Amino acid sequence: MVLLLETDPHRGLSDGEAVQRLERFGPNALPVAARSNLLLRMARQFHHPLIYVLLVAGVVTAGLQEYADSAVIFGVVVLNAVVGFIQESKAESALEGLRSMVRTRAKVVREGREHGVPSEDLVPGDLVMLESGDKVPADLRLVRVTELRVNESALTGESAPAHKDAVVLPEATPVADRRNMVYSGTLVTGGHGAGIAVATGAETELGEIHRLVGAAETLTTPLTAKLAWFSKVLTIAILGLAAVTFAVGLLRQQDAIETFTAAIALAVGAIPEGLPAAVTITLAIGVARMARRRAVIRRLPAVETLGSTTVICTDKTGTLTENQMTVQAIWTPDVMVEVTGTGYAPEGVLQNHDGDNVSLAANAALRWTLVAGVGCNDAAITHDDKRWNVVGDPTEGAMLVVAAKAGVNPERFAAGTPRVAAIPFSSERQYMATLHRDGDDHVVLAKGAVERMLELCSLQMGADGTLRPLDCSAVLCAADLLAARGLRVLATGVRSGVGPGELTEDSLRGSLAFTGLQAMLDPPRPAARSAVAACHAAGIAVKMITGDHVATATAIATNVGLLDADEPRPGDVLVGTDLAELAADEFPDAVDEAKLFARVSPEQKLRLVQALQARGQVVAMTGDGVNDAPALRQASVGVAMGRSGTEVAKDAADMVLTDDDFATIEAAVEEGRAVFDNLTKFITWTLPTNIGEGLVILAAIAFGSALPILPTQILWINMTTAIALGLMLAFEPKEAGIMTRPPRDPDQPLLTRGLVVRILLVSTLLVASAWWLFEWEVNRGASVEVARTAALNLFVVVEAFYLFSCRSLTRSAIRVGVFSNRWIVLGVAAQVIAQLAITYLPAMNDVFDTAPIGVPAWMRIFAVAAVVSLAVATDKMLRRVIPVLRR
Ligand code: ATP
Q1: Where would I find the Cation-transporting P-type ATPase N-terminal domain in this sequence (predicted)?
Q2: Known catalytic residues?
Q3: Given Cys at both, which of 14, 140, 402, 653 links 327, Cβ 3.0 to 4.6 Å?
Q4: Which atom of ligand 1 is the closest one to the Cα of 549?
């Protein structure tokens, strides 16, 4: 399709045109391919070895004119598919819901003004602005670029950044060489630019690839893969065993139909068919719970890893603190000024230590400190709904507010001294500088971290405006004093009377006059202290990694309980320069010891993660900038900030915090532990039934006696209990004390030795009691149907009792409380109705070959269930009191 974009390369589309085009071209989103083909998804549910066995069994039983059995088998096949289908859909929609939680926003110019819009609202012809850290929202033909570099690995697999240009290229240029194009889904790693959207949604190159591969979201994690493999191997082994059984039976000249039935019973009973689906649904429920607590999982394996996290490395600004900056003090070489008022409202005054208001006219250094804060600034303060807000960097917002309190007007400054060039702030550079035209001259303004600014200054300004040689130590001393109050300190510098020329980092060095320090408060988040304490109680070390000054960082770290104010240890705090000097062999130990890393550059973060991992730690690491991406990728769980983070960081992360709050990481770890618990509980609950059923059948075959339980009955048990009982464990609330035990060793198998013993104990009790009950009923003269019904009910009742035992793997069922998970109570009620129906309804009796049983039989069944519960309770108690048994 040839499309004339009809766009003004400077003013963009009109709002009306954008609305019309959105209607015409549809939203800029990829179609959800995998969900569309319902039939195919349903058909996939039948692709399972067990289903094949059942289908063969169904056909054979129909051939033998056992129509009731055949109907049951086919019924189970269909029911199983429907349940699998529903579970899979639920899990997938849980994951899909997450995608919409981390919305990408795009910056477009429409009618000459720049707006932030959801990237779905982009239309062909839109003029899109790009800067470092953005995800390219559509396929764009570039019209302007400055040093634009793009990581196109999402499309080409090439991870080295591609340099882009706005040149005109011949029409035949292959896609890979089109330097004047950027493609949807790729990441801007440096520079900035503007481009016009030429393709959106499915029409983009990414849309093309998406269409080719179907891009179905997989629900696999290392654990699910391992379990799926385990069930597959087990299935094959059991099918083999069933085939051998059948063959041996025939050789022994036993009745072919009976032997066939026994082999089928063995297969359906012993194969844990519900396991992979249950694991997936438990993971999906965990993901949904995390999302409710504002932690959005981007890569499913992170759910598992979170539960075994041993170290959390966190940023300071915005994660442990509110990122709500207010300048509280200004220091110039002649005076210390305190500023009143909080937040972004420009209400407050500047006072000297006698409480008198200070006048800017009397102090040139103070005036220039405020002017530098205003001119060298990309933020804006807005007022709406009676609230003052900052658009842009809060550090810069605070500087605008303090200037307004002192009567310095940003618009008037910008009109009189327009900006002509800038060196933007970056975490590596730690300062920002701007060049302004001032009449016939130019003036340079700069602001940044104190140490960096001192490298740029050789002079300092006095109150009368005269310049003197810089007194470095006085500045550093004042900065330390302010930082020790927990304030973030920025220095400012100026140089007037500059010629036009270029603004470069080299030309700045040693050329500025220092004017003063602005010190701002960024209060710790209210929940940070308790979240740090919770992590410590859970055996998780918390380390702060910040670009800020060591004294500011120390004050905040002490405030949130990360550093012990009473007992500081020498190795607790490391500064970026210390790290650079550490020898390779000292590095891991020193990093493992330290709790606070200050003035750290993003590149050093990667080394920190690697060092911690070399010490066997499972590291969760936060990040927000482009340069944090390698560390986020390397970390066991990379955590990006949803609000302040760049798209590049989000793309590299395993989890995104929608509220940027440290407490959310702690919440996610807690949920991660709960997911693991619930998985273990489900497996511990389900395996004894499979083992029990399998062994009962094997024993019957080995002794050549009647089957205590028929294949259709086994199908009944497995289907009904998996749905009504087992699935309810996925909704199990977190256990008390989940955050007071140490992190799980990631290498530890899912089932500890103790749990394997418990599973074997319950399996043995099940086999023995089912066998005993069946024999008892037969010996006292009951019909084989009655004996089988008793055995069937025994399995179900024991499973229901054991379900309550499995709600906690360590605490006794009574302490957990019977009614604390209402899903389980509902499930048990449903199961009771089902059991009464299969035992007493004549129609069900006909279909399942069951028969009504009397009160004494029920009493024996409940006695057995009580014995099993008691045995499990004793096992738990022994493990609680004898530590060696706990492993
Ligand atoms: P973290 O979020 O990791 O705790 P941070 O936000 O404090 O770190 P950076 O944003 O990298 O770290 O800032 C490092 C230093 O750069 C700050 O201590 C400050 O002195 C200075 N700085 C921060 N923002 C600006 C800015 N907009 N302009 C100039 N200098 C800045």
Answers
A1: 1-66
A2: 315
A3: 402
A4: 18
Rounded to the nearest whole angstrom, what is the distance from the C-alpha of residue 186 to the centroid of ligand 1? 27
Q: What separation in Å is there between the alpha carbon of 658 and the centre of ligand 1?
A: 21
Residue of the nearest CA to atom 26 in ligand 1? Answer: 425
- What is the DSSP secondary-structure string of 806-841? HT-SSS-HHHH-TTS-HHHHHHHHHHHHHHHHHHH-
Give 492's strand partners.
Answer: 447, 516
Q: Would you give the DSSP letter of residue 707?
A: P
Rounded to whole angstroms, the Cα distance separating 711 from 697 reads 10
Q: What global pTM score does this model have?
A: 0.80
From residue 451, alpha-carbon distances to 328, 431, 648 in Å are 20, 10, 29
Please identify every stretch of the chain with a pLDDT value under 70, giving residue numbers as ranges.
1-4, 31-37, 94-103, 157, 159, 176, 210-222, 273, 884-887
Mutate which of 315, 395, 492 to test ligand 1's pocket (most atoms within 8 Å of Cβ)?
395
Q: How far apart are CA 710 and CA 706, in angstroms?
A: 10
The structure tokens 């000024």 sit at: 337
Mean of pLDDT over the chain? 87
Convert the pLDDT of each residue in 833-884 to its tens digit: 999 999 999 999 998 999 999 999 999 999 999 999 999 999 888 888 877 6
Amino acid identity of residue 81, one-letter, is A
Q: How do residues 440-466 score in pLDDT, each as one tens digit? A: 889 999 999 999 999 999 999 999 999
Q: How far is the CA of 515 from the centre of ligand 1 (A)?
A: 19
Please name the residue that has the structure tokens 């189970």: 76
Q: Mind listing the pLDDT tens digit for each residue in 370-415?
A: 999 999 998 888 887 778 888 888 999 999 999 999 999 888 998 8
Go through the chain and tell me how many residues it has. 887
